[in-house]
Amino acid sequence: MIDTQLDAQGVLTLTWDMPGKKQNVFDADAMAAFDEAVDAALATEGLTGIVITSAKRDFIAGADLSMLEGMAFGEGRTAKALYGQIGALSRTLRKLETGGVPVVAALNGTALGGGFELALACHRIVVADESRIQLGLPEGTLGLLPGAGGTQRLPRRVGAQASLPLLLEGKRLSPQEALAAGVVDEVVPADGLLAAAKAWLATGPKAVQPWDRKGFRPPGGSTKEPDVANVFMVASAMFQAKTFGNYPAGKAILSCVYEGLRLDIDSALEVEKRYFVELLLDPVAGNMIRTMFVSLGEANKGARRPVGVEPLDVRRVGVLGAGLMGAGIAYAAAKAGLAAVVLDTDADKAAGAVAYARGIEDRKVAKGRGTPEQRDALLARIQPTTSFDDLADCDVVIEAVFEDRAVKADVTRKADAVLSDRAVLASNTSTLPITGLAEASSRPERFVGLHFFSPVEKMQLVEVIVGDRTSEPTLAHALDVVKALRKTPIVVRDSRGFYTSRVFGTYVSEGLALLREGVAPALIENAGRMLGMPMPPLALADEVGLGLMHQVGRQTRADLGDAAPDNPGTPVLATMVETLGRTGKRGGAGFYGYAEGGKRLWPGLAEQFPLAAAQPSVEAVKERLLLVQVLEACRCMDAELLRAPADADVGAVLGWGFAPWTGGPLAYVDTLGASQVVGRADALAAELGPRFSPPPLLRRMAERGERFYG
Ligand code: NAI
């Protein structure tokens, strides 16, 4: 795990190399091995210095996330037990920095979280000069805080003010940025890393950290000084305004630094541990880690891929339609190193896909995040065409033409005629059932839905839609395609609205229902923001387009008749679109006005939807906006549209930004308890109608005390 080598000068090099892992991480074994290695090192006779480095490409990637998930959800965990567990690394690091021997961290690669905290406990940090290397403390973004001294040593190195963005936002620095910020001491060419570390040791440095010297004053001063205390007042206010108290980690980090900087380092480390345990006991961190890291990672590794199917070797991706989505998909393919062939009705339109990719890449080059050579190589991988013959060698063809059954059927037949039997044919339709579209294909078992999100280059999620006739090998190969495109898949059975649009739609509709009842528009919007949704419901409706939503609603009612779901937003859309001609943001007017000087809620709403005499509390509005989505997600589980709870939660957070602090709608049910959710839902259903009725699955779970996650 950790190799040791003593040289003639008495310098001991500890090299991290966890067997069987691509990266070094802190798990229970690694922490024990490191503690032993430190003890053994400090007991070495004639020792003049220690160098810590890694044999992997990266230094240490941080804590093992499954271990953190286990701590957050483990059986019978208590504050006391957690305190002992999480304190282990902190104690080892303190031993290292006070052992009387100078220690250098020689960072040959990325060092994050606990890995970077280890470096901060060394007397000197030397880094290889490579732009791929990232240094930082991302724990705050996982709902946690750096619990091995990071909240104390970083501010003692660079000052409270400079440390806060790094701790709160988990900002990652390149070696040069870290050097400029004073976070590390020296950046050297990669092949001179160990030599530089040893050269510093050869100068006979003192093995005492600045914060262990008498009279130490952190850069900028301690938080007892008014200027520094002011920084915290402003930072707290800003953080609260941005997060509405949904993320306890930020508050805990601010408290840790504020309190810790008034204390000696040993007492400060105790304060840090106390806040860390508090966060572990709060459901937010565990839910976020499970959904956004553990479940997401498993989805990326193909958790839902049918077993035993030979992988599809994906090299060449065909795209039909070079519009917004087609161009985005072609770009994603080229970016992932694949060849993309993009077909449209004329050459200019097809070439639009290359222009789209060039736009993105030019911006990257201008920002120094890519070279002209990289850009040109990427663009060369996108081949525009108007001829179906050019699709012949594709491993998959993804259709993204107009949302029109006849047009889609036509291109499906033409693609089928040239494709090999083993190629997958996929549709990016957002509303048309896959089973129906597959009827146009001569090989419906090779037909599948790949629902991308806009803008494709930024949105990580792909909903893989399994039609009635899609075969399991085709599903496996569709997941191979998503992996080759470096996106995250969830698997959804074909049905109206699939999963994401269906559940997301209830959030917007509930906003419209509230408006119709006479709830103040500003109250509705604030409640959406406070819930932690990326956009409030009325603004979101404008963004999607009121005209489009109205049309989709009409189509659904025409298709389903009495079976169409109860949609409380329908009359509001009819008024807005048919009576008022306000069709949303693109049309220049919706629930908001979009005149010069920015967007503002349209004052005329008061006349159309008169305010009710009694207004609900903001908490009541938040509850409705949240529960309506949670219940719809549960209905999707009840109908077995999804194969695992993890897909529902990952899809919600990545697909429409469902309040990330919850870890997703099903994690939220587990946190609250199914019986609590059923109780609230029944009460709301009595008042507002069947859209709040809990589905049978949820009632069963409540009766039996079951959870979505084991
Ligand atoms: P778009 O209108 O920007 O692009 C469609 C492209 O298809 C146009 O370039 C058009 O010239 C081309 N096209 C039309 N008929 C063709 C044919 N017979 N042969 C070859 N090319 C043809 O539309 P957009 O927004 O890119 O949507 C495409 C598909 O993706 C639709 O099915 C849509 O529902 C779906 N989708 C759209 C999302 C969005 O946010 N815009 C999100 C997810 C899916």
Shape: globular
Secondary structure: number of strands: 18
Number of domains: 3
Bound molecules: 1,4-dihydronicotinamide adenine dinucleotide
Instruction: Specify the CATH class of the largest domain.
Output: Alpha Beta
CATH superfamily of the largest domain: 2-enoyl-CoA Hydratase, Chain A, domain 1
Strand fraction band?
5-15%
Q: Whole-number radius of gyration?
A: 28 Å
Record the strand order, biggest sheet: 11-10-9-12-13-14-15-16
Helix content: 40-55%
> What is the CATH topology of the largest domain?
2-enoyl-CoA Hydratase, Chain A, domain 1
Distance between the termini: 32 Å
**Broad structural category:** alpha/beta
Task: Look at the structure and give the mean pLDDT.
Answer: 95
What's the structural blueprint in terms of helices and strands?
Layout: E1 2-6, E2 11-16, H1 28-42, E3 49-54, H2 65-73, H3 79-97, E4 103-107, E5 111-112, H4 114-120, E6 124-128, E7 135-136, H5 150-158, H6 160-168, H7 175-180, E8 186-188, H8 193-202, H9 226-243, H10 248-260, H11 265-281, H12 283-300, E9 316-320, H13 324-335, E10 339-343, H14 347-366, H15 372-380, E11 382-385, E12 396-399, H16 405-418, E13 424-427, H17 434-438, E14 447-452, E15 461-466, H18 472-484, E16 488-493, H19 500-516, H20 521-530, H21 537-544, H22 546-560, H23 570-579, E17 592-593, E18 600-601, H24 605-608, H25 618-638, H26 645-656, H27 665-672, H28 674-688, H29 696-704
Parallel strand pairs: 2-3, 3-4, 4-6, 5-7, 6-8, 9-10, 9-12, 10-11, 12-13, 13-14, 15-16
Antiparallel strand pairs: 1-2, 14-15, 17-18
